[in-house]
Design a protein that fits this description.
With about 325 residues, this protein is α/β, with parallel strands linked by helices. The protein contains nine helices and 15 strands. It has helices at about 50-55, 130-140, 160-170, 180-190, 205-210, 225-230, 265, 285-295, 315-325, and strands at about 5-10, 20-30, 35-45, 75-80, 90-95, 100-105, 110, 150-155, 175-180, 195-200, 215-220, 235-245, 270-275, 305-310, 330-335. Strands 3, 4, 5, 6, 7, 14 and 15 form a seven-stranded mixed β-sheet that branches. Strand 12, helix 7 (about 265) and strand 13 form a beta-alpha-beta unit. The longest helix is centred in the middle third of the chain and has 13 residues, at about 130-140. The protein is globular and about 60 Å long.
Length: about 325
């Protein structure tokens, strides 16, 4: 290809992202300068965090600026290189953005060795940032202990599916909250969760009482809002609440709804901690080695929802996250 298409942020979204919030731009495929290489993007990671990156304001990373290529973690293949560590043909993972081709100086880029029988999308899922988030969030921030009960919201999503499985590997009891009977069956029958609660069925409060009779030692929250509020009512003494995300709040046009049951932290002598996986970057190799071993042993299932299309399908695929249609990691594979 002599040209590269890219999505640039055209406006700050108000509520759900609209077509007018994007500019689709065609540019020449870049040439690498000294110490640079060019990547042809093959797979885009579609993440709830993208919605937050589009907002103005203080966060753990600077917001995407108007006119900038939309930030995205991606997998791709090096097509030209003037970099000593990256050669033509290397498969790499990095924040390459929503575009057909990207130029990089190698900062934050990892080489990937594709293993037989494992889909490339898995390296954006359980063997990528998703798995790392579950690993450090549960084991380091959540301080998981054998015999604990773990309650994970958004359990059928990318991080949630990994959290529940890691909890089981470590000898804990895993209870998931997901939307719809099909997702709940998958969690129990395919991924080994001990129980799954369909929040769409109503009466979440009583369902939590039924499935967490000994209460909850680790609450791993990806959803926020009412689901977090109800989870807080089930904390055991000394429980750890891990704040990973709040997908129910990202499209709010008003202030984010905070937990009204926060006094449960006092009553239970519990802690609530937010975390960002980037803080553990120096330990990524350790975690990837362990996650890879679990996958090779069949103890950790990589679950991806891959949509095949071209770069122009990105806006519609992003919206799928907030409709709750995906199970596992959502990836756009570029034709």
């Amino acid at each position: 290809m002599s040209t590269s298409r890219q999505f640039r942020l055209a406006a700050r979204p108000v509520g759900p992202v609209k077509a007018s919030d994007w500019d689709l731009v065609e540019a020449e495929v870049p040439s690498p300068g000294e110490g640079e290489f060019v990547v042809e993007v093959t797979h885009l990671s579609i993440d709830p965090a993208m919605r937050g990156w589009m907002n103005e304001g203080r966060s753990y990373v600077p917001p995407v600026q108007i006119g900038e290529v939309m930030r995205a973690l991606a997998l791709g293949r090096v097509t030209a290189s003037r970099h000593p560590r990256f050669a033509e043909g290397d498969v790499v993972q990095g924040v390459f953005g929503v575009q057909d081709h990207a130029v990089s100086n190698g900062d934050g880029v990892q080489k990937v060795t594709l293993a037989d029988g494992i889909s490339p999308a898995a390296y954006l899922g359980v063997l990528g940032m998703t798995g790392l988030t579950a690993y450090f969030g549960l084991l380091e921030v959540g301080r998981l202990q054998e015999g604990d009960t773990v309650l994970v919201s958004g359990a059928a999503g990318a991080v949630g599916t990994a959290v529940g499985q890691i909890a089981k590997i470590k000898g804990a009891r895993a209870v998931g909250i997901a939307g719809g009977p099909e997702k709940c069956r998958l969690l129990v029958e395919q991924l080994g969760f001990d129980a799954a609660i369909d929040y769409k069925a109503g009466d979440l409060h009583n369902a939590l009482r039924q499935h967490t009779p000994a209460r909850v030692n680790v609450l791993f929250d990806n959803v926020g809002g009412e689901v977090l509020d109800q989870g807080l009512t089930r904390l055991a003494r000394g429980a750890r609440v891990v704040i990973c995300g709040a997908v129910s709040q990202y499209n709010n046009t008003e202030s984010v709804t905070g937990p009204s049951n926060y006094m449960a932290l006092l009553v239970s002598r519990a802690t609530m901690t937010g975390f960002v996986v980037f803080d553990y970057a120096d330990r990524y190799p350790e975690a990837i080695a362990q996650l890879s071993q679990w996958v090779s042993e069949g103890r950790l299932i990589s679950l991806e929802h891959t949509i095949r299309g071209d770069i122009e399908t990105f806006p519609s695929v992003l919206l799928e996250l907030f409709k709750g249609t995906n199970t596992g990691k959502l990836v756009l594979e570029l034709a």
